[in-house]
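The records we work with from here on pair a chain with its fold. Taken together, the tokens spell out the fold as the letters spell out the chain. The record below shows the convention in full.
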Amino acid sequence: MFLLAGLGNPGSQYANNRHNIGFMAIDAIAAQYRFPPFIARHHADISKGVIRGEEVLLVKPQTYMNRSGVALGEAARFYKIPLQQVWVIHDELDLAPGKVRMKHGGSDGGHNGIKSIDQHVGKDYGRIRLGIGRPEHKGEVTSYVLGDFTGEESAPLQTLLAALAHELPALLEGRPETVMNNVARTLHA
């Protein structure tokens, strides 16, 4: 079984925030592969389904971004999912909007959700970093990530999320490079 966790903050006031792009990606995956409705369990909203023959647990931690590791750790331990089969989807300031990078392990890059996960489960899990760009001034980071995507950003964002969901089977087959290349190709078509 694979665990795919999207990071974000619970509550309608955060729903369209840049920081919630992980939740948005999980919702796009759930819709694409017709997962059952999410249920509250392990401090998260969880849905279990199948993608091309692979069992997949979708997780949206409800502990707020800075405590994401609490929910992810509980779910991974309960379902006995090894870290090599855990992928976390999150926003990335250091990537331009529409850019996707995937890898196992690495530093938290100052991302508080990733710091929390590192503390609760270790660092050897997969990361799917979705670019949101960076504000002009360093002092504006908090308001930027907690700000909503603009109308201008909406169409490219929806294209990115749909492409990521569509290409997900390659990730489950151990081909993250294929996913990144195909998503990039879709966005620049």
Notes: Helices lie at 21-32, 68-78, 112-121, 141-145, 151-172, 176-187. The mean pLDDT is 96. The longest strand covers residues 44-51. The first helix runs from residue 21 to 32.
